[in-house]
Amino acid sequence: MWDGLRVFWHSLSQSAARGGYVYVWANLAWVLWSLPLVTLPASTAALMRVMYDLQTGPTCQFEGFTDAFRRYFWRATALGALTVGVVGIAAHNWHAYRDETGLFVDLLRGVWAAAVVIWTGMLLYVWPLLFEQEDQRLVTGLRNALVMAVSNPGFTFALLIAAALIGVVSTVLVFPWIFITASWMAALSSTAVLDRLARYRRSMHGDA
User: Fold this and answer.
1) Against a cut of 0.90, is the pTM above it?
2) Distance of alpha carbon 203 from alpha carbon 200, whole angstroms
3) In the chain, where are the structural domains located?
4) pLDDT digits over 59-88, tens only?
5) Is the separation of the CB atoms in 186 and 35 below 8 Å?
6) Is 133 left (phi over 0), alpha (psi -120 to 50) or beta?
7) Residue 154 to residue 148: CA distance in whole angstroms
8) Do 119 and 86 form a contact (C-beta atoms < 8 A)?
9) Half-sphere exposure of residue 113, counting CA atoms within 13 Å on the CB side?
10) Surface-to-core class of residue 30, CB atoms within 10 Å of its CB (0-12 exposed, 13-18 middle, 19+ buried)
């Protein structure tokens, strides 16, 4: 839990320390390229790539956004469709059983809620993991994201709560979504994955 809050704060401080202007133009590009809605998943993947490159390399350019948009378009679209399916099924089940009572129904509601939370945690991790791994298949990225989410429950939950709070504040104020919120969330995603991978690699070297 505390590691998650540490990464959250580190990601916030990075937005000012490491190319704050990149956060702004990347966020604006994300907004514009997401306007058709069907391109939202691909523009999100492109934004994730820009924030990942900013944290792992000396700099990044707008060409990196457009290249990533084209490169990951179909994988991102598939992931977007899966997300709509997961959320849609959970919402349908909640609505269908809204008047039902009993322990079994309460357990089902818990399962549906847990599935949505776990899926959201996977979305937090999947793109930076894809950028890190040699196997570029989406199914491999989702599998690794699932392992990371369930292996770090307190860490993941803290990040999701912090991101949700930022999202609520940004929604109330509106303008942060236009200029920085999406970039910051993408940066948080990369910071979290790189932190967990660094910890894993340190543990592997310690065991060696």
Assistant:
1) no
2) 5
3) 2-207
4) 667 778 999 999 999 999 999 999 999 999
5) no
6) beta
7) 11
8) yes
9) 6
10) buried
